[in-house]
Amino acid sequence: MFKKILVPTDGSDLSNRAVRAAIEFAKDHGSAVVGLSVAQTHPYESFTLISRREDFSLLSESLRQRARDYVHIIEDLAEKACVPCQVHTVDSPQPWKAIVDAAAEHACDCIFMASHGRGGLNRILLGNQTHKVLVHGNVPVIIFR
């Protein structure tokens, strides 16, 4: 069916459940997994409360570290399930675009993701990032609710 499945995560509870389901799906279908977490960066002007460049650097590094922590969860779960896995993190102000780009870059033929994540009001129906991946993606998207 699918040879390589992109599994993005934002570390939310639903996203973690989607990761587990994606790994099980990959195991059942003999697929490999590519784990991805996006450190959602913002332009400097978004951080008017941050008065020093060092503070912004600390915030950026914190976001990157959380992204690394999230993909290590995917890596550990895939290893336990004997599913081939590679993981990546990227910085991007637009997570949906980073997900679509990663699917193309890593030759994934499917994206398996949660229906919503950390997006506040976007959690009501279908998450904003998930919706944008559906609209702009070039491969099938499996949505975990």
What is the structure about, briefly put?
The protein has 145 residues and is of the alpha/beta class.
Work out the count of structural domains: 1
Q: Overall pLDDT, averaged? A: 88
* Share of helix, binned: 40-55%
Give the count of helical stretches: 4
The neighbouring-strand order within the major sheet is 3-2-1-4-5
Shape: globular
| Helix-strand pattern | EHEHEHEHE
Instruction: Compute the separation of the termini in Å.
Output: 21 Å
CATH topology description: Rossmann fold
Compute the CA-based radius of gyration. Answer: 15 Å
Oligomer: single chain
Label the CATH architecture: 3-Layer(aba) Sandwich
Quickly name the level 1 CATH class: Alpha Beta
Please summarize the sheet with the most strands: 5 strands, parallel
Total strands: 5
What would CATH call the homologous superfamily?
HUPs
What does this structure look like?
The chain has helices spanning 13-29, 53-80, 95-105, 128-136; strands at residues 4-8, 32-40, 85-92, 110-114, 141-144. With 145 residues, the protein is α/β, with parallel strands linked by helices. It has a single domain (4-144), classed as Rossmann fold. Helix 1 (13-29) runs parallel beside helix 2 (53-80) and helix 3 (95-105) crosses helix 4 (128-136). It is globular, with a radius of gyration of 15 Å. The relative contact order is 0.22.
